[in-house]
User: Fold these one by one.
Assistant:
Number 1:
Amino acid sequence: MNLILIPIILPIVSALALLLISERTRYLKELLAICASVVSLLAAANIFLLPAQTVSYAWLGSAISFTLSTDTLSAFLLLAAGLFSAAISIYSFSMPNKGPAKWFFFNLLMTQAFASGAALADNMVAMLFFWEGLLVFLYTFIALSQTTYAAKRTAMKAFLINGATDICLLVGITITGYIAGTMSMSEISHNKLTLDYGWSVFAYVLLLIGAVSKAGAFPFHTWIPDAATDSSASFMAFVPAAIDKLLGIYFLARASIYLFVLNGTMQLVLMTLGAVTILVAVMMALVQKDYKRLLSYHAVSQTGYMILGIGTLNPIGIAGGLFHMINHATYKSCLFMTSGSVERQAGTTDLSKLGGLFRAMPVTGLCFIIAAAAISGIAPLNGFFSKELVYKGTLDTGYTIFFLAAELGSFLTLASFLKLGHSVFFGVRPENLKETKEAPFSMLLPMLGLAAICVVFGFGAQLPINWFISPSLEALNIRHGILTGFHPDKLYFLSVIVILAAVINHLLGLAAGGGKADKASDHIHYAPVLKEAYAMAERRVFDIYEVGMDRVVPAFSYALFKVDRFFDWVIDTAPSGAAGFLGNTSRRFHTGSYPLYMALTLAGAIIYILLLASNGGLK
Amino acid sequence: MDKGLLAYLLIPLLSAVIIPFAARTRPKMADILANVTLLAGLANLLWLALRPSMIAGGFADIPGDGLSLLLVAAVYLVGLCVTFFSAYFIEEGLPNRPAYYSLLLVSVAAMTGVVTTTDFFTLYVFIEVLAVTSFALITTDDSSAGIEGALKYFFLTFPASVLIIVGIAILMMTLGSLSYENLRLFMASDAPAGPVTFASALIMLGFIVKSGVVPFHTWTPDAYQGAYAPVSAHLAGIVTKISGVYAIIKLATLLRFFDGRAQALSEMLMFLGMLSIAVGALAALKQTNFKRMLAFSSISQIGYIVLAAGLGTPLAIMGAVFHLINHATFKTVLFLNSASLEKSTGTTDMDKLGGMEHSMPWTSWTSIVALLSTAGVPPLSGFWSKLLIILALWESGLRVYAVLALLFSIVTLAYFMMMQKKVFFGKKTPASERVQEVSAPLLAPVVLMSAIIVALGLLFPYFYAYVKVVAERIIL
């Protein structure tokens, strides 16, 4: 069997085998899942090290060639998916809140397999096949993670939002393939499509919707914060933080750079989308009172940087976007893991009930600090370098406003992480948390590993750039200059100013909030104008899904119900009424009266003879 | 007269003469004689038609036109089922037991005569013999309903005899001969039709009345409902089909409807067929008595056969013949089941029955098979015959008739499902308490017939080959 198939087939086979294992066995399911994901990771690493290769099968007769190709970008994605799958499966070994182990690992391995397939597929139909498969496991992942009704509801929300945008993707891929005359992405890239006419613009916009929705950008992000509360930290660390970002940004890059040549308008659209996502989500993150929910808004906000980076369309920005993608997956996964540890050890993720846990959970706290510093772009961690690249790319386009928006986002990010870290790990420890202990080793190990990656990718930023990002850009056929190197230029000093501003803001907030860390953002939360906006957001006025479900769907359903009643009347009530009426009439007519019957017989005979005679029977 | 099949007419007649003498002291002898006669005849027929060499040769060596042989087999089959059923159904003390069997055998002989004859006068004679035996059979149990049914049957079909005899007279005067062959040759020639067609139309009308096509159907519900229970099955299953519908199909082929001769008559026939389908099905929908509902269902199903006969194309004739055979099978099952119900519960009123599927599972299941076949549900035999008819209608451009025929087969399913629900499903009613399944001999005929329904459906390709031979021979 070809090596390429192992990261796809092995997890699927293991996931199916998991279902056969008895519920009563302990650790067997966990160990099987860990083995499968680690072996897949090793296979992915092997694939990454080998030169690019292609596997092709005829599919659906010979109409579509099922092509998997390991160009450097795809292999990079495959490696990342394998890494996070392995990390999360080890992390979940002793994680109690993940739901039934059988189903958790089944969903995890299936998600890994389908994500690997989507990353490797060169044919767009094959990619769509894997992409849609992920949708199924997204639903089951959330729905089976808790037994509550809210979990089912959120699962349905995630399913419907992603289902609707996946249909956009499907239509977009169909049109793209039709215009290009081939479904193979590598063939299209030799002769890229331009946005000169309506159909190609339409196709690109649909692909864009599919990609950014997968990545969880505004306005398709609304299921992610809900999933943070209604699902497990393991799920959040794996799917919305890692896999979805990887695939969404990967396909956004493919579509925007590899398949299409974008024009200035579309560049502006992408950058606006990125900036709006950064700001809207980070504003929401700032005022959250729940550990996981706060993180989930950041998972949305950081997507904005990646979209902004890719939207710049210049090599530095794209490199920043892709680098930020892998960095974000690393530290956000790590952050969700810390939230899972805190939830497991302290029993809650409510910020007002937590505090001072650093002494009780030093390793978790350390990982949190590293990851939080990374996400806030503090030098010299990995987040700093990727954000730096995005900023540079943005400045190079000449649109300073997007740069300012990104810096503002950076400021708010740091502010909210100061609040989060302060209220969870520092300050006064509540009475009921006095006995709290450190999380078990199986949870700390992947956390430490990811935190280490944050540090290594920061101090040795040329390492990932040279190993992953430059080859990825080459796979996208982009020529680029030198991307690495630490420059103590204006941008660096600006980032220092942002850090200082965030610290000052935090101190101000603490003073205004009476020293309580979880109220450190209240001066922004209840500021004039913002207060009303937040209140509306709390009522989900801006959530397209909820508004649709509340306003549009009931009306639409009612209309459909009426239409259904009408058809029901046409095919059921009316015919059975008519048949009943005629049947009753006929029944009443058959009275058994002999004279009536005889008269009918004779009259019938006479009419028969007359009709025949007049119609030429006698001719 | 088809001489090859003459024995099938004479032997039952002989048995009918012997029975009263043989059964004078031992009434059971009547049962045995009648059953043995019919069973022997049926075995003989099956060997004639279904021996392996015959099937392998695609039925090319079938004697006569093939239709006669098929219908004689159907007559014997239904006759055997009815006599076998009767042997265990009739109460011990019934005084006219030998007469009953004699009449049944005479009726079988007369039907054999009807389907084997080749001229109109012999046809007329056998039809009248059949009618007389039927009147007598209806009144077997001397009930007032039976006598009312018999009288209605007699008086309301008597105009038919008048019309047939007048038609035969005109035919004799204009054509100079009464044989089928001469009429066929005349219609094939270019001679102006005129009085010959008119005479044929009158004869046709007579048979329409005898088949119970709307609006001449009024005798059927009362006769079927009032008749002695096994006799209902005999009448509905085969007698009215042979005495009316068979002759209509025969005339349709003789008058060459398929090449446009006698256009007006053809259209009239199709209209009456469609009317029967509609009125029969709609009236059946609202009946509360099982047997009466079956009677209206018969009217509706005859409508299909008449509609196809009126169309007259080879495919339609095949459909008509096949539906005739199918009707004999499923209607016999349903009427015999109604007789079983009557024996077990003492009533056939559907409002008083309920939940019978637990106490009478065999009756319930055979009913389901029969009703699904009637409604034309694949893969049962009724599906294929209706399919042939509807296909023939569609091919001939009669889209409206085709769609209506399809729609009313849904209505057929509707009223039969209502019947099944009322009688066999649901909760038990007081009348259905402490009811037991009837004895195995009473079930044997219906199980046999159900098996035939399924077998004809599944082995349709063979049967199609046979019916195709028939259609080729009687049309070309």
Number 2:
Amino acid sequence: MTEAIHVDALVKTFGPTRALDGLDLSVRTGEVHGFLGPNGAGKSTTIRILLGLLRADSGSARLLGGDPRRDATELHRRLAYVPGDVTLWPNLSGSEVIDLLGRLRGGLNTKRRDELLERFDLDPRKKGRAYSKGNRQKVALVAALASDVDLLILDEPTSGLDPLMEEVFRQVIREEQQRDGRTVLLSSHILAEVEALCDRITIIRDGRAVETGTLADMRHLTRTSIVVGLAGPATGLDTLPGVHDVQIHNGTVRFDVDTAALDAVLRQLTTVGILSLTSQPPTLEELFLRHYDRTQADGEHQTRVAR
Amino acid sequence: MNSLTGTRALARLALRLDRVRLTVWVLGLAVMPMGTAANYLSLYPTEADLRAVSAVLANPSLVALSGPLFGVSIGGLTAWKIGVTEFILVGLMSLLTVVRHTRTEEETGRLELIGATVVGRYAPLTAALLVTALANLAIAVLITLGLLATGLPAGGSLALGLATGLVGMLFAAVAAASAQLTQSARAASGLAGAVLGGTYLLRAVGDTGPTWLSWLSPTGWALHLRPYAGERWWVAGLFIGIAAVFAIVAYRLVARRDVGAGLLPQRLGPAEASPALRSPLALAWRLHRGLLLSWTIGLALTGAVMGGAAAGIGDLQSPNQQLTDILTRMGGSNGLTDAFLAAIFGITGMVAAAYTVQATLRLRQEESSGRVEALLATPVGRLRWAASHLVFALLGTALLLAVAGVAGGLGYGVQIHDVGGQIGRLLGAALVQLPATWVLAGFGTALIGLAPRFSALAWAALIVSVLLVELGALFGLSEWIVDATPFAHVPKLPGSAFTVTPMLWLTAIALALGAVGLAGLHRRDVPVA
């Protein structure tokens, strides 16, 4: 399997701040790769190095088989980018920005552009200064998605989008997934988004990749929070493996369960009789906490726990 | 909460943000009149010296530049020499300050953050006006005290200080109104700046022709307040009245409009980009064209007015030695008119250099606003991107100078019935300024490449150059200091001999600085916040 992006032991410092601290990242051709981490973890810095905008202090980065800095011009013909913080020229209309960026990249698919404008419900005639944050984001998304490129680099692309538009975005990315050979690097701090779209995930924290693999590989890291109303007493629940923090209050039971143990726990509950049930997917923060719990328990190496 | 709640906190914030900028403005403006007066005291120690030099200053060309001389005294001479410069600069300071703390805050969205706290509707505008008023008050007081310290009469000293402060407050009020009209801060300052430039030209025309025109211009009123020449205090009332009108308009508009909106309508753009918008250069043209157009209009008007004023000099058929001496110091040596025109185009070169700096720094603005990121993620290389903006700094300035030269040639040529000949001559006089302006573009590029956070120092370089050339001789500075500025090496055309060597040197220096800057830009991280 070929790699669209290969990053090895990347280090980047800004004055006293160590933004990247030996980051490794490998994105295979044709996959949607989630680049997951909290704010300030170094996601945007990595992307800017991949785009040749920043120069790494040490380590190596390869992008589509080329050097991100030396071959920037040729590589940029084959990729499209949505910045994390989209700023537009105040006196250019949305369509002018979309068309300009597309043409600079060597042409854009106008049919696809019109379709995307329609789906994202964006008025392209407004001037840059008149757009809200979400609409600026849509302008950048349409500009990137309407180009026929090998690689899409999306830096927190749904920030500012409403849930309806987030769903449109997911559909569009799923369609991209169907098309052969198109690779997507999707940076995000929202686990659910990455979970819904990505083939593989790299989790980054404090400038280092802490985990990489498919989401299934990481199931052991995730717990689901469940609130359930039961017909009878929840006996023996807290003795089941993988169940944590059980609280019982007037027939309502709250607990966290390891994703791997979910099936067994639900079987147990149905024997008692379920009146109501809500489940909450694991959040990124929980996933991190889990990760650090694990590494500390294993005693593999010393880790800093979340501040 | 009343509509002024929070004014004090906002004013303190503005003072904090502007502590360096406003201090530099205030001290600079406060020192100039005192320095000029001190210098005249040593240059013209006797009544006879004064009389001789004053006789010379009545000629129309100098009147067009600086206004009429009202009083034959050290004070009168000082007010004449420094007055108009001070008025223009204080107007600029005030309008920029007001727009910075009103429309800029609004455009960037920072006002929204502040507006959601306990802040009254009128508080931001009031705070901006208060801070500007404070700066103008400081300037007025310091000018008065400085002039008193040199031993000039109290009445005149107060009048010159007052006139400067009042011009400042008038343009603060004009900017307060213009900031309500447009959505962009740049357009708001442009509008107020155009009013300022207009009043200067109106005064220049009025002082050389129909006097009533100069009574329509606030920069004219400031002179008609007549410091050191039988002060007419009632003129101050004109300022207060008109400033109040603009301020009332501004407050009315604030009350009526939404935050973030302007009164001038926001038009929709095209639904599809024009086929031409497909290169960095085409984008740069979109971003620069408005600025370039307004500068072109401004310099065309200025060139025509000054060219027309130059024709008046021919009427003055008794050039005495003193006048020739002064004009020689200002301009060249062959003929009064040529000397005047050479002085005018020398100033035009420095004014056009302000555009050069503005256009060069656009590069940095594109970077710090973050817009460059999306652009550089396309196959556009950074050198190509930089070049697309620098083209406007270099060739845009050439266009401006050419327009000023042609307009000057028309204005002058029509009056002396030699349009063809004068256009050619004055076009040359304007274009010789070009290499000096390019040095500033080169310096700006070097800053952007090597020390991007300090790129605003390009403005400092321009201001220092102007001060050294304009006031260097007056303050008796050593030749080599003045020679450090590019404008000291421009041949004084028309009149003097044209020498190509300094032009080549200036161009070479500009190119070298530019190359260093581009090399730095090529190597460094982008964007640097």
Number 3:
Amino acid sequence: MDFAKSDIQAMLLDSADRLLSENADVEYWRHQRSSALGFDEARWAQFAELGWLALPVPEAAGGLDGTMEDIALLNIALGKALATEPYVSTVVLADHVFKQAADEARALELLGEIAGGTLRVALAHQENGAHPLDVEVTGTQARPSGDGYILSGAKIMALDAPGAGQLIVSARIEGEEGIGLFLVPADASGLSARSYALIDGTRASDIVLADVKLPSAALLIGGNRGSAVLREAIDRASIALMAQAVGAMEAANKICGAYVQERKQFGAAIGSFQAIQHIMADNFVAAHQARSMLYHALANADQDEARRSAALSAARLVVGEAGQTVSRNGIQVHGGYGLTDEYAIGHYFRRLMCIEKQYGDLIQHGERFGNSIFG
Amino acid sequence: MELRLDPDLQTFRTEVRAFIDSVLPADMKERQRRKVANNAAVPDLLEWMRILNAHGRSVPHWPVEFGGCGWTPMQLFIFNEELYKADAPEFDWGGTHMLGPVLYTYGSDYLKDRFLPMIREGATMWAQGFSEPGSGSDLASLRTSAELVGDKYIVNGQKIWTSGAAHADWGFFLVRTDKTVKPQRGISFLIIKMDTPGITVRQIPQINGEAHLCEVFLDNVEVPADQLIGEPGMGWTYAKFLLEHERTTSSFIYWSKRELARAKDIALGESVGGRRVADDPAFRARFAKAEADLLALEWSVLRVLAHEELDEPEAAAASVLKIRGSELQQEITMLQVDAMGAKSLRFFDAAPVPPPAPTDVWPDYAPGRTTVALINRAATIYGGSKQIQKNILARLAFGL
């Protein structure tokens, strides 16, 4: 166990600092929000140049073979800057699925395209009313047909799908156990997407699959292995999102700390009042505990599924509640300004709320962790 | 950053677990497990120190030259965790964790030679005389005076909340030796024998039936001048060192882990309307949150032990540990109490050892839980109240 950053990690954070800090402000976020995809494709290309998109890719495929710790540290930086790029969907989630794909040659090709910045991928798994942590339950069907499959079903809130060239779609294969993970081009015939923005400016799509014809090679992973890999991929996405939440909380705390020293009422900085000081202390405690739980999730990321998912859900519980504390208190100390789109704290508030509810919310993670304790 | 646990530590854990198992007397362990009182009985506490000392492990965290084990912070963490898990009596914290480090850091050779072995060998119980009736959170305003007359200090004043003073052989006191300077500069750190003429101890009856906390009255108490630690007027600095030295102790992480496991046993053992308390969704959600919060606290302790580099001073993290540690002690004891519902209201006298024999209705986990939960309201008050910790945090983390 070592908390100190390795040379590679220090370099990674240094590059993150240089690229992201110049655009970590309200003006930039509002500009991106009104753009077509909610993020800047030119900056995505810079992510590729800096090697960030190759971070989890094996060296054999020209990647950096980075650890989950490396990915988390980069995501802390992305969270601080409220980056809206689809890093988690594409680099964390899709990479993990591709790395487990049956066809290794095809997988290396896909990983290479992601690393180069030419391919973005989104997961289309969630269905209306389905439990986000119970990946086995899906109403989407894959019918074997000739030398391939025909997919039909409806997915909702596929995060980052509007900017993705390929989708990973989960479906039950007729006559088989478990679920299959299919790679489906976003422009496949029979696939229609209704896209929208989330409150943090990122994008998602509701997707209808009406007899989408796929070649057999579209099946990346089948059967029980499909469910296990999807659970792993979602847990990894959760870790990266928690890292972003930690970065967002720490940045929000710094912003609030500066604000309460600058804002004067009754002839004094409001930060000189004990009521405000104790709110700030609560926020510091919350962010500190959140970072500790990110470490707990990381330390257990490669354990067997029971331990991994228990640690992850425990972490999501603490990080989610900490995010609420920091962002809600953050708005409170800003008074009315906290409710405007022109102050940063409201942007952090919305981002933290999004992270809290993606890939399982507080109730679902609390329930899963509780079940791990008592059976 | 690489966060997986070092596999060598598992070997160390196995070794210390076997060690504790081999030296902890079964009857002592049983008394400790079933005790109603919040504090261990003095004879067991001292006997356990003597046993550990016979194996060179009574003060593992001290420098090797004074009897420490030379372990890494992670090894110390594991040793402590295993002691609690095994229901070993606690350390006499006043001697081993508070006075000891001050003595070997600032004490004269005479004081080190005289007192360090006494602490290490479990020969004495120690009392801490800091707070006064008028000086709680505002400790620097303390008024108990020590006037140098010849080669003696004449001490007059009153201390309060002095844990275990009625059973202590010795005490370490903060006293005012100079009234002409800024309050913090006029305080000295004095070792006083508790049976010195002029000392009167009154045990204070507590809301849980115990009387562990005491008032200490000092009336013209004569103390040899060479029992003053370090320099006169430096007592405040030493006291701050003492409180900061054992930053992670205030988290009570080992205690809370053991007690959360006991809360789980209670929730599995108690039923309401044919349903285990553990299966009540509201209880389960609360328990899950407490366990998750405790994991967060544990990692926060590990981060402090490893001196993780942060933007804020390390003392900020120490306040986090105190705040969360004390809140969690309270939440965990209340989980134990709430899992027993109205049954938790039965009063168990803390004195008899062992407590009443267990029955189906009153299993052996029942006596003691409420006794401890009641006095545990103290956790967010002593050692710098939660509000004082928040003041400190606002200053250290945000410059407020």
